Every structure is written in structure tokens, then in C-alpha cells.
Amino acid sequence: AGQSRFFSFEGIIGAGKSTLLRKLQENGVVVIPEPLQAWQDNGIFEAFYKDMSRWSFTFQIAAFTTRVKSVEEAISSTSSSSSPWMVGERSWFADSYVFEPLLHRDGHLNNMEHDSYKLWWQWAEQRAPRTSGIIYLRASPRTCLKRIQKRSRAEEADIPLGYLEGLFEKHEDWLMHRKTPYGRHDIPVLVLNADVEFESN
């Protein structure tokens, strides 16, 4: 009782998560960004993109752990009186329902690693903070590719449409069709049409 409630924003790259979270933060909502800095500081982010088959398993463990740690730290440092709820840019569910299955499908995680991750994730998820709800920013891969090209981030320069389509398919399976390979999914989901531009609305 009295603890801030955590909600996650989910969606493929270019769906508008950062834009919408920035607007919420400007209005006093506690926002928890993806722990990109932690991934960059210990070198795992760069290593993962240089050699996915070598570092995918390590990166997935690091991603889960740092996401959970970010939320735990935000909860412990925020009183419910100052903010009754907080929002995060993706959750650990995105790792297990979207990114890890894609890495396995594409051969960057072998079956032994995939099975080990699944076993570990099911144990660790029970110990993570509860996610009260998910906001799914549902945008088409083509719309997102146009946004990615427009914002011109160096690390996103070579993202192909096919990769975005794979991410979209996994998000749809998880959040629209409720296909969850790791068991239950009883978290409420709000779907927003993210093909519209949040920046101008």
C-alpha cells in the first residue's frame, strides 16, 4: 500500500515512446528511461552489436537485470505522495516476448541458451516489481522506418524494414493476440494508435 505503480510503454523502434515519455515527464510524471547508459558503460551494448551470436545471451541477462534495477531504484526513491505512478520505456517482458525470441529465431541464441534463459526468466520475473499496466504504442513498421530515417541517429542508420517487421510481429503476438511463450500474461494493456504524430498533438 502506498507504493508507486509502474506502467511500461511498449512498441517497436520509432513508435514514439521517447516523445510521449518526454511529454509525460514535462507534466510531472516519473519516467524511467531504458538503461542504455549502463549497457554502454560496461561495453555490452557495443559488444552485442559487433558479435550477436557471442553476446546475445549475456546481453539479455544484462538487459533484464538493469531494467528491473532501474524500476526498483525509482520506486525506492519516489514517495507515492509525490507521484502515484511511474512509467518506463519498455519492460523486462519486452526482452522475453520480443527480443530474445527474435535472437533465437535468427540463430544468435542456440536452443540450450534459449531454454536456459526461459528457465532463468521465469524464476527472476517472480521477484521483479509488479507491472500494473502496459501502454502499447502500435505503429506500422513503415511509419517507424520513416521516423528513424528522419531523426538520423547514427546507431540506427542501418536498421532494415525486415527487422522492424519482425519486432512488430512479436509485439502483435504478445500484446494483441496474447501469445506468451513464458506463461501467464494477466497485465492490462492499453493500445494507442501510434501512426499519428504525438509531437504535433
From TrEMBL:
Substrate binds at E34, Y49, Q60, R90, D95, E156. One of its GO terms (molecular function) is ATP binding. ATP binds at G11, I12, I13, G14, A15, G16, K17, S18, T19, R147, I148, Q149, K150, R151. InterPro entries: DCK/DGK, Deoxyribonucleoside_kinase, DNK_dom, P-loop_NTPase. One of its GO terms (cellular component) is chloroplast. It holds the Pfam family dNK. Keywords: ATP-binding, Nucleotide-binding. Residues 8-198 form the Deoxynucleoside kinase domain. The keyword ATP-binding applies. Belongs to the DCK/DGK family. This is Deoxynucleoside kinase domain-containing protein. It comes from Guillardia theta (strain CCMP2712) (Cryptophyte). The lineage of its organism: Eukaryota, Cryptophyceae, Pyrenomonadales, Geminigeraceae, Guillardia.
